[in-house]
Amino acid sequence: MPETPYVAAGPRVAIRHTERTDRAEFTRLARTSAALHHPWLTAPSTDEAFDTFMTKLERDDHEGFLVCLPETGAIVGFINVNSIVRGAFQGGTIGYGAFAPHAGHGYVSEALGLVLGYAFGPLGLHRIEVNIQPGNEGSLALVKRYGFRLEGFSPDYLYIEGAWRDHERYAITSDMFKAQG
């Protein structure tokens, strides 16, 4: 079970902040899930990569969440709110991934609603963006389920898995999310 309480819980999953003590389990899951993630993302799979990841998440402009099964505390995925900008913008971008063997069960989908509720609630954000490679059908379907709108196409946007990759840009505002009920 986690040392830190859950930030939010749904019918099947709960989210909690990522901690440095999660390193061994997170990196093991990232290594196990490398084929699942390729070429969409690279999750930290070594101690050094995880420590760098945590240094970023501990800054004021990032929030990292683990998606867990509340009855066991098992980590089944992660969602991060990155590059949070305050002031007139009040927004950030999200990145996420499921871990094998829990991918395809809808856990990250349920958790995305929890993270959006947290982002638009306690974090006080107005806008969340997500950038998705055009061929990533699962991720595209996920954001469309939550009502994210397509706002554009960014060629050579992010360097992932050894190449600059094109991305489609989606966004949702707090008003759009709240209108969904």
Tally of helical runs? 6
Largest sheet: 8 strands, mixed
Please report which band the strand proportion falls in: under 5%, 5-15%, 15-25%, 25-35%, 35-45% or over 45%. 25-35%
Q: Sum up the overall morphology in one term.
A: globular
**SS elements, strand count:** 8
- Which strand order does the major sheet show? 1-2-3-4-5-6-8-7
Q: Which spans have pLDDT < 50 for at least 5 consecutive residues?
A: none
- Average pLDDT: 94
Determine Rg (CA atoms, Å): 15 Å
Describe the protein in words.
The protein is 30% helix and 33% strand. With 181 residues, it is an alpha+beta fold. An 8-stranded mixed beta sheet has the order 1-2-3-4-5-6-8-7, with helices on both faces. A hairpin with a 2-residue loop joins strand 7 (149-160) and strand 8 (163-173). The mean pLDDT is 94.
Care to give the gist of this entry?
With 181 residues, this protein is α+β, with helices and mostly antiparallel strands.
Layout of helices and strands:
Elements: E1 8-9, E2 14-17, H1 23-32, H2 34-37, H3 47-57, E3 63-68, E4 75-85, E5 91-98, H4 107-120, E6 127-132, H5 137-145, E7 149-160, E8 163-173, H6 174-179
Parallel strand pairs: 5-6
Antiparallel strand pairs: 1-2, 2-3, 3-4, 4-5, 6-8, 7-8
